[in-house]
Amino acid sequence: MSGVTQTVFCFRVAYLEKLGLCSRWYGMQPNQRLVSLDAFRGFVMLLMASSGLGLAQMASLYPDSWVWQQIKYQVSHVPWTGCSLWDLIQPSFMFMVGIAVPLSVTRRKEAGQGFIGLTWHSLIRALSLVLLAVLLSTGGKEKQTLWIFTNVLAQIGLGYVFLSILARLGWEYCVAAMVMILAGDWFWFFQHPLPAEGFDYASIGALKEDLLPGFFGHWSKGLNAAADFDRWLLNLFPHAQPFITNAGGYTTLNFIPALATMLGGAITGNFILTSPRSQLQKCGMMLVVAAVALLLGTVIGFVGCPIVKRIWTPSWVLFSGGLVLVMLTSFYWLIEIVGLKKPFFPLVVVGMNSIFIYVMHSLAAGLIKDQLSKHGMAELFATTWGPVIEKASVLAVLWLLCFWLYRQRAFLRL
């Protein structure tokens, strides 16, 4: 980098540091961070930024191929009930946010911050996340602010203050809060009345086919308690058209059961940070907890409420939490115990700048694709494997940007 470019870059980073939006780490030693956490976060963010590597579009060319249809299922969100690999991106990210909280609190306490300072910091972070989410949700085609809070950053922001306070109180409070949240969420949905005979489904943007059978109908798309709440809440904000329903069935109040997911991460982070057990024993205990969560989530999914990511049902919290914990434990074992740090370096580069790649993918993926098309890639994008080449090329550019920031020791944070 030239001297002028270096000067401009340092000025920009210094300015961001004053705003609390960026940090530079010089001379950082590997043992100062849990590399496995950065690698897992990087894996999740690369999975998100890959847009499925265009595999879903490729699968549409082979509708009779069982293999391609299975691939498509894993890189797409399930319509309502069930779980695919793609559905695990958001709970993984939120679980990792929870893990980071006890690590962050420990550092800030060592720096002399008290309860008021920690709470104020969490409030600022929460507000920043919600406003950034609204900005990203609005997009360039909207003529006014799109006040919607189902974006993953908004969901994290809405629950972040509660997460920060509960994580500081201890794991016992976190467990108690998780139980109360899941039980309360289940009851709130269950007590919501089912549509009566002759109900006008079209008036709320729903279909009669959306109604699940039996008492599972309380967790139907667009016909549940949280969807009704959004029809009141979101219409308090200015919209070009009155809000009727979210096309995907997502709701603002997902953040409450999603807080249970983040609290699970906080418990895990505190366990990894403070437990006197060996790393191998920690892996064993995390796998046991994961198995229990998977079993409970599966059983509840059959008898209590369906496994639905889009409204973050209690069964989804447990089922997805178990799968996320299995993936995290695998990374922890491979990197911290086996010592395979170098092969995971490309993931660490992204994991240390997760907010940056999330924002860049949201705002600039289309621009990157257009620029690549102009500079010789258009013909490749038009081939049979064009969707794969296109998504992989955009992902490569995003990774290179993260790598450049890593080399500069510049990390965007909120």
SSE inventory with pairings:
Layout: H1 3-19, E1 22-24, H2 35-49, H3 55-59, H4 66-74, H5 89-110, H6 115-138, H7 152-169, H8 171-190, H9 225-233, H10 255-274, H11 279-303, H12 314-337, H13 345-351, H14 354-381, H15 386-408, E2 410-412
Antiparallel strand pairs: 1-2
Name the features:
2 strands, about 425 residues, globular, mainly alpha, two-stranded antiparallel sheet, 15 helices, disordered N terminus
Summarize the structure in words:
The protein has helices spanning 3-19, 35-49, 55-59, 66-74, 89-110, 115-138, 152-169, 171-190, 225-233, 255-274, 279-303, 314-337, 345-351, 354-381, 386-408, and strands spanning 22-24, 410-412. It has 414 residues and is an all-alpha fold. It has a domain at 92-324. α2 (35-49) crosses α13 (345-351) and α8 (171-190) runs antiparallel to α10 (255-274).
Q: The biggest beta sheet, please?
A: 2 strands, antiparallel
Determine the fraction of residues in helical runs and give it as a percent range.
Answer: 55-70%
User: Low-confidence parts, pLDDT < 50 over ≥5 residues?
Assistant: 1-32
Q: Tell me the total number of β-strands.
A: 2
Query: What is the CA-atom radius of gyration, in angstroms?
Result: 22 Å
In short:
With 414 residues, the protein is mainly alpha-helical. Helices cover 64% and strands 1% of the residues. The protein starts with a helix and ends with a strand.
